[in-house]
Amino acid sequence: QVQLVESGGGSVQAGDSLRLSCAASGRTLSTYTMGWFRQAPGKERDFVAAAYWVGSNTYNADFADSVKGRFTISRDNAKNAVYLEMSSLKPEDTAVYYCAAGRRQPTMTAPSYDYWGQGTQVTVSS
Description:
This protein is mostly beta strands. It is built from no helices and eleven strands.
């Protein structure tokens, strides 16, 4: 059974940076797509970023347009972990952020993912 545990959320000011971490256990996820989604109150869960395996030890990344240039995603397969570095945060980035793992395409849709964490709250004040 795969478990994903997010950490690193918190309350920050607009313009600040924050780093989210997701630790996986139960299975090695080096060939899985690792993604981040977020859900604001009263809204649907939206794609944020994903890092997907393309062969050998190479990964590509996808980002939502709203976070391109501000967020980066990285993974540490030795630790079975994925990270989301968020900079220039805006109040509209406020949401619960979820880590997910899956092996299907497309990477930007929630049904492509099989495993989900419980989420970590990010609040950005203006």
